[in-house]
Write a structure and sequence with these properties.
α8 crosses α13. Strands 1, 2, 3, 4, 5, 6, 7, 8, 9, 10 and 11 form an eleven-stranded mixed sheet that branches. This protein has about 350 residues and is of the alpha/beta class. The chain folds into two domains: about 180 residues, 3-Layer(aba) Sandwich (D-Maltodextrin-Binding Protein, domain 2), CATH 3.40.190; about 160 residues, Periplasmic binding protein-like II (D-Maltodextrin-Binding Protein, domain 2, 3-Layer(aba) Sandwich), CATH 3.40.190.10. It has 13 helices and eleven strands. The N and C termini lie far apart (about 50 Å).
Length: about 350
């Protein structure tokens, strides 16, 4: 796959990407979609994705070269994309939702329709919807990342509760959970940690916000980038981001915190009433194929949901991690409530 990506420029995709980037900068997402889709042929497959464009572009390019199907995509945050899809105008413009936590997709389930993929027997039931409204395609454990030049082995936090220690005040990189799915999952986990009785442990969050010292980052990528750059000593982020930096020789390392590791199941779904339904199904199968899943493992260090593909080199098996089942969380159905209190606590701490 790598040779094709390097040697064949994929002119159509490059043009689409340039147009996309220009229009994203000039217009709100909603207007951008309307402008683009009025000008493209109805046979062009339209994909929404919150994934990093470093992942999106080579896989879409390979898909176009393999199938001859043209693709248009919009890359933005999971919640921004789902809110766009929940509008009457935009939801008929999209064929596939590629990426986003299954917990978010559950909330907007009426936007999608069931599809049993060609590789259904290779995917564990726990990583797909029980009525086939979506399927996972990779796993993203939420971990602690630390800068090895700023934190000694003896100092490294190994517990979520260690993050409440005042010695880390102003040294923790954490993204805004309004924008970051990984940050919202970490917030959700913290809320139930050491909680007695019903309700949420907001005392944990108050102490954590105090330790952030007013420094909340705009998006997930700023978390791992700022720890790698030495702007922060530690951060809560996704495993694959840390591992990519490790393979680049950066002064970072990863910790799976002892109370539990929540895991994002990045999912892919077929849009209800998709105009290019058959091509959408072909794309979903392509993403879940052994070829593409192996590529994502080898080049992006993402954990595959396929039972016949090994974990990325250097990563410990999931069986050796204390995985926290995010199905135990009810914070996704109460997201507005949770984020409103988060905002209030942030303001109070300023």
């Amino acid at each position: 796959m790598e040779d094709k990506i390097v040697k064949k420029p994929g002119l159509i995709l490059l043009i689409c990407c340039v147009i996309s980037l220009i229009l994203i900068m000039q217009f709100p997402s909603h207007k951008f979609l309307s402008l683009i889709n009025k000008e493209i042929d109805s046979d062009v497959l339209t994909i929404y994705s919150p994934l990093n464009e470093g992942i999106i572009i080579p896989i879409i390019k390979e898909f176009q070269e393999t199938t001859g199907i043209q693709v248009e995509y919009l890359s933005a945050g999971t919640m921004e994309l789902l809110k766009l899809l929940d509008t009457k105008e935009d939801k008929y413009l999209m064929d596939v939702m590629w990426g986003g936590s299954r917990e978010y997709l559950e909330i907007y389930l009426d936007l999608f329709e069931p599809y049993v993929t060609s590789y259904d027997d290779k995917i564990e039931d726990t990583y797909k919807h029980n009525q086939n409204y979506f399927s996972g395609f990779n796993l993203l454990p939420i971990v602690l990342m630390y800068n090895t030049k700023l934190v000694t082995p003896e100092e490294v936090p190994n517990s979520w509760m260690d993050l409440l220690d005042p010695k880390w005040k102003g040294k923790i990189a954490f993204a805004d959970p309004n924008n970051s799915g990984s940050a919202y999952l970490a917030l959700s986990f913290f809320l139930q940690l050491n909680n007695s009785g019903s309700g949420y442990n907001w005392r944990n969050i108050e102490r954590f916000i105090d330790n952030l010292d007013g420094k909340v980052l705009a998006k997930s990528s700023e978390t791992y980038d700022s720890v790698a750059n030495g702007d922060f000593a530690i951060g809560i982020t996704m495993e694959e981001a840390v591992v990519q930096y490790l393979h680049k020789g950066a002064d970072v390392n990863v910790v799976y915190l002892k109370e539990g590791t929540p895991v994002i199941t990045d999912s892919i779904a077929l849009m209800k009433d998709a105009k290019n339904k058959e091509n959408a199904k072909i794309f979903i199968d392509f993403v879940l194929s052994e070829k593409v899943q192996t590529y994502m493992v080898d080049y992006f260090y993402l954990r595959s949901i396929r039972t016949d593909i090994a974990v990325p080199e250097g990563l410990i098996p999931m069986e050796e991690i204390n995985i926290y089942d995010v199905k135990n969380l009810d914070t996704y159905s109460k997201k507005t409530y949770v984020l409103n209190i988060w905002k209030e606590l942030i303001v109070m701490n300023q």
